[in-house]
Prior knowledge:
The complex is a heterodimer. Chain A is α/β, with parallel strands linked by helices. Chain A has helices at 2-7, 53-60, 100-106, 115-129, 144-156, 174-189, 205-211, 242-268, 282-293, 303-309, 314-326, 341-348, 351-365, 367-378, 386-394, 399-416; strands at 8-20, 26-38, 42-46, 68-73, 76-77, 85-88, 162-166, 197-202, 214-219, 224-230, 300-302, 330-333, 336-339, 383-385, 419-422, 427-430. Chain A folds into two domains: 2-247, Rossmann fold, CATH 3.40.50; 282-433, Arc Repressor Mutant, subunit A, CATH 1.10.10. Chain A is built from 16 helices and 16 strands. In chain A, α3 packs parallel to α5 and α9 packs across α12. Mean pLDDT of chain A is 88; it is low at 1-6. Chain B has two domains: 62-274, MetI-like (MetI-like fold), CATH 1.10.3720.10; 361-578, MetI-like fold, CATH 1.10.3720. In chain B, a hairpin with a 2-residue loop joins β1 and β2. Chain B is globular, with a radius of gyration of 25 Å. Chain A binds chain B through residues 58, 61, 63, 80-83, 85-87, 89-93, 95-97, 106-107, 109-110, 112, 115, 138-141, 147, 158, and chain B through 163, 165-166, 168-169, 171-176, 179, 183-184, 187, 190, 270-277, 305, 309, 312, 314.
Amino acid sequence: MIRQATSCIIEMRKVCKAFAKPSGEPLPVLEDIDLSIREGEILGLLGRSGSGKSTLLRIAGGLIRPTSGDVVYRGEPLSEPAEGIGVVFQSFALFPWLTVIENVEAGLDALGLGHDEARRRAMSAIDLIGLDGFQSAYPRELSGGMRQRVGFARAIVIEPVLLLMDEPFSALDVLTAETLRTDFLDLWIERQLPTKSVLLVTHNIEEAVMMCDRILVLSSNPGRIAAEIAVPLAHPRNRLDTEFHGIVDEFYSILTSRTTESIGAQSRIHGGLVQPLPAVPTNRLAGFMEALASPPYQGRAELARIAGALALDIKDLFPIAEALHILEFAELKEGAIKLTAAGRIFAQSGTEERKRLFAEHLLRFVPLAAHISRVLNEREGHLAPRVRFESELEDHLNPSGTEQTLLAVIDWARYAELFTYDDETRTFITSNHSAS
Amino acid sequence: MEHYAELLIGGPWYKRFPSWRDAAATLLVLAIVILLGSGAHQMVAPLVAAQQPEISLSPSALPVYALRTTMRMLAALVASLIFTFIYATPAAKSRRAETVLIPLLDVLQSVPVLGYLSFTVVFFVSLFPGTSLGPELAAIFAIFTAQAWNMAFSFYQSLITVPADLDEASRGFRFTGWQRFWRLEVPFAMPGLVWNMMMSMSGGWFFVVASEAISVGKFQMALPGIGSYVALAIQQRELAGVGWAIVAMSVTILIYDQLLFRPLVAWADKFRFEQTAALVVPRSWVLDLFRGARLLRLLGEPIGRAVQSGGRARLALPRKSRWRLVFELPDRAGDVAWFGFLLAALAYVGWKLVQYAAPQLSWGDVTIAVSNGMLTLARVVILIVLATVIWVPIGVGVGLRPKLAEKVQPIAQFLAAFPANLLFPVAVYLIVKFALAPKIWLSPLMILGAQWYILFNVIAGASAFPSDFREAAASFRIRGWRWWRQVMLPGIFPYYVTGAITASGGAWNASIVSEAVSWGPTRLSGSGLGAYIAQMTEAGDYPRIALGVAVMSVFVITMNRLLWRPLYAFAQRRTRLD
């Protein structure tokens, strides 16, 4: 018991987090999370947007308190940011009015060090992270990569036992992200960092497999730990290894089966009326279907391959796949996506035919669209206020889910010429009745 | 969707429609104004004026007067800054404090500054009888009321929009409340605060000039300063003296701008939150001089370091002080107690109001004040329309020519800052000389200082108009009236509204000094609410001054709520792409 407590930096037991809905009822974001971060490991948290992975990282950092459950940090319950935890943010979160070195020193303010001691420690962190020569620059003068290096230096200067990284590379371009990842891994492998454990939140599967020793997959709505996979590969890892590929593929199949299960489950609640829809514009859906229909895929592709070829990460790829699956233009299965017969026809048709087909599928497979359309037809004047549908959705989805779902249904219905929406008056209108 | 706007007369417009809070806040402020007025009435007897120095009309006295006037401005600025920190912080951090403080601020900024100067003079003079400290404080207070409200609004606005990631980063660093305030909140608020300080300063000159020489009934005061100099010149019909004062004021404003505000704006640029480099970086030769001077830097470093470590000190603001307990009671019980308390306070104030005002004021007085208000309202509306028709085309013409805009913009800003009341004697002299009708010809004075806000905002809008829109319009051959209606006017609309709101507020304020003017023994009155307040002030009739001020506040608030606010919200909604 005691041995286990010392080898774990942080431990969560039955952690739940709920935010309040507009009605005041709780909306669960995370449910029954049990996890422990062990000494000497990089633990990955992988999930799609809305899976609560960033919330979980903030709970580990003491920035957010869980609704229920325990968080134990080095044997003590954690209720607010504690000494020895450093955070690296996706948006860098640098103070724009401080220079690089002042930003790094800001991390030390809470320790109450003298000016000279603070300067010395800040300089050595800057050295370590490769920011030499940039000390006196302001963040706005730096490129994204350099800014995130400041973010790293600022987290490392407090000599953290636990480093929390919230999608640290996702705001950077591909090349810069790769350099930063490699540099960080080098420091980590050579044990130049005082840090004992790292928690990395990401939606990039390859990044997770590249960096982590163990990866937890979070499912969405509410977030639960869906799978745990160890990555037994030695560093430095090679993306082209078959073993590497095998692990990446495994993640894709876990995520696809999670996605289809969740779509299936949602379609059984309230006749699918409150199914969350991904707000993917129709142009993107059409473009993806065209790519999938043409060689080399000929209608079927491994998600891992097509993601690489089209340079999409899972936060872009899965919403497309999910939308096509819901609309039954494609089918997701075991890490692959396959166009249905309708999908093939869509890919080969002209605009009018595409619109007709899309309208048909929208009415058949998206109960919300059919519902709005029916309400509009029954109504005098063919108008209905947005708030009516919004309140129906809000009972089941969080505010951003509601917003996204309505955004999706409006965009799709406009394309299909089923109905349209007037933002000025916040009402839905049947297409042929709107002033044109 | 919520729309926020940071405006001189606006602040965060979190509600588009008036709510019960506005009504409550309006009642509270008006009641206080009227009660103070009635109170001053009883206090006026023992007023002892200090031995006041003679004002000299010699031009050689002007530099010293200008310095005294400037010192009052600075003192008021410091007071406003302290007020801002103390007032806006609880408003942003406690939901309950916010429900009172923000509507209150909104009403306070609608109260015409010069209107209640008469009671504040009485109040301060009775606090420090026999010294000139009383009148000095009253003048400083007048400037303070001209700038504190919008600075507090801007700071509040910044506090509630601190970016989530910086908030999390500073919580992650375990900053104390003190460290957070100086390391995160104040720097983040700085650009907005400096901009608002600058805008208020423009109004400030107007009020400092107006508040230096005041007579309320039998009580007269004249503080050494440019305002008193002009007042004396008017009394003695010295047009040359007025000319000297105008020169001195212009020089003062230019120096003030170069030595204080330009460096401040250039310095505050580093607090800009946008991570991209600015296209035009504000520069100041004074700041460059200080930054370049090595000896000065060497001397300044310990001071800078001391200030920094002051902000970095791990001072823990007391976590559970009494003050907090009041605001942080458990939700339900606390809300009931808090709103119960507010309701009781309002009822008490309302009852007192009726008790005081009833014997002194009749409904007839209210009718007179309101009908005067209608006349002033008509003037404000007509003048804003006229100024719009004149300055919008000119502003667009200038704004679309970057070279020209660069030259005109500082002039427009200077004109907006220049206290127009110094120019009144010139106009009055002309009206007297040509025997023009005062009811018509006094009106333009109201907008004399305020019209420039429309001009420079329109110039700013036209300069910021995206060039690809202009090119698109040109390639589709959109010309003439269609070009104005579909391209340019929508493009500058939000800027125009900002300028027009400021101009309208300025015109109301100016009415008190512009509707009733004098030139030596000749008195001209244009009627209207401003003239009403001015005449009551001269007669020392406090209850009616208070009534006039209250009526004017109601007019201004109503106009803001029913016209400007919806217009601004509309402008915000219609001109964004995402």
